[in-house]
Amino acid sequence: MQDMEGSLTARDRVGIQDFVLLDAYTSETAFMDNLRKRFNENLIYTYIGTLLVSVNPYKELGIYTKKQMDIYMGVNFFELPPHIFALADNVYRTMISETNNHFILISGESGAGKTEASKTVLQFYAVCCPSTRLLDNVRDRLLLSNPVLEAFGNAKTLKNDNSSRFGKYMDIQFDHQGAAVGGHILSYLLEKSRFLSTWVTGSV
Ligand SMILES: Nc1ncnc2c1ncn2[C@@H]1O[C@H](COP(=O)(O)OP(=O)(O)OP(=O)(O)O)[C@@H](O)[C@H]1O
């Protein structure tokens, strides 16, 4: 009985980890309430089925370590608490077993954490995919191109100190063993006007 009460209290405190299980699943208030409860406990990720909702914590939570990657690697999607590593791992394993293309779409308002999320996914693949000297070269190029792109295409705005002023399409090519053998990063919709005014005024 005590255990039951204890777990009910915990659930009440940290909310539920999948919005699909919310009793009032059509209520925006209930949705926001659940999100707020979790955020207050530093739980920034919540699922809606296989969709991942993320809230920017604007602080280091220590949840992107190698140890965390190991925990999520190869584990079924719903077995562990919601995490971007679970999503990255699930996409990777599905791609290998189905031998077809998969994509991760990241969307949200400015400052939501899209760029950081994309870098976290890249870092996960950098650690989890098979590695050889040649493959490490590809991995390093993908990871290290980000600071260069950000140097030319990012600017400080009212919403985000490091706001991408362009859209980014990243593709990673894997071989049949799941090794990352190549990739492209295409930038588009570069907001040249804002970029230039940043140079002049220092912010947009
Ligand atoms: N998961 C996270 N943990 C801690 N801090 C984060 C996280 N995600 C984002 N941030 C912080 O929020 C800032 C803004 O995030 P980011 O640049 O990824 O937003 P964005 O959605 O790409 O914005 P924009 O559309 O303006 O480019 C980052 O510079 C970082 O300081």
Automatic annotation (TrEMBL):
| Entry's Gene Ontology cellular component terms | cytoplasm; microvillus; myosin complex; plasma membrane
Q: Which positions make up the signal peptide? A: none
**What Pfam families does this protein map onto?**
Myosin_head (PF00063)
Provide the alphabetized UniProt keywords: Actin-binding, ATP-binding, Motor protein, Myosin, Nucleotide-binding
BP GO terms, sorted: actin filament organization; actin filament-based movement; endocytosis; system development
Protein residues bound to ATP: G108, E109, S110, G111, A112, G113, K114, T115
The segment(s) forming the Myosin motor domain are 15-204
Q: Give GO terms: molecular function aspect only.
A: actin filament binding; ATP binding; microfilament motor activity
Name the InterPro entries on file: Kinesin_motor_dom_sf, Myosin_head_motor_dom-like, P-loop_NTPase
The family assignment reads: Belongs to the TRAFAC class myosin-kinesin ATPase superfamily. Myosin family.
Q: Any idea what this protein is called?
A: Unconventional myosin-Ih-like
Q: In the UniProt record, what gene is named as encoding this protein?
A: LOC107723363
